[in-house]
Amino acid sequence: MIGAGALAPHLIKAHLAANPSLQKVIIWNRTIKKATDLAENLQGSNEYNGVCFKSNESLEEIIELGDIVSCVTNAEAPLVKGEKLKAGAHLDLVGSFTHTMRECDDEAIRRGRVYVDNEATPVEAGELVGAFERGDWEGRC
Questions:
Q1: Residue 64: closest CA among 39, 37, 91
Q2: Are the C-beta atoms of 91 and 80 separated by less than 8 Å?
Q3: Which residues of 83-117 are buried (b: 16+ CB within 10 A; e: fewer)?
Q4: For 25-66, how does the pLDDT look when each residue is reduced to its tens digit (9 = 90+)?
Q5: Within a 10 A sphere around the Cβ of 57, how many other Cβ atoms?
Q6: Range scoring the smallest mean pLDDT among 7-11, 40-44, 105-109, 131-135
Q7: Can you give the pTM of this predicted structure?
Q8: Would you put residue 80 in left (φ > 0), alpha (ψ -120 to 50) or beta?
Q9: What is the DSSP letter of 52?
Q10: DSSP β-bridge partners for residue 93
Q11: Other CB atoms closer than 10 Å to residue 18's CB: what's the count?
């Protein structure tokens, strides 16, 4: 999980519900204390028996480890580098909603299939708008 704000616990819960075999969730946030606090709160909850929650200060390390990389930030510079993603990893980007916001680089877009939950996303989300403008994405969802 990249980001430890208000939406992060909900995304974690959704991924755990959709993938009940998940055993470990690693949380990164630019403020490590927020990541640590969220990991401790989730670990202390009786809702997620058998799941280990940890925080990690190394963004690159957790991206390389992740089968699922879920990102919900207000980043304006790419946090997720496509070259660091494991082959077949799932990447979801929730935070970007303007042209100036960008949670991943063009390589991450190139390497995957793009699915959106809103018609406006391809013309609003910074990582998609930018990749299309630079010719790194065909604009197909």
A1: 91
A2: yes
A3: ebbeeebebebbbbeeeebbbbbbbbbeeeebeee
A4: 999 999 999 999 999 999 999 899 899 999 999 999 999 999
A5: 11
A6: 131-135
A7: 0.89
A8: beta
A9: E
A10: 71
A11: 10
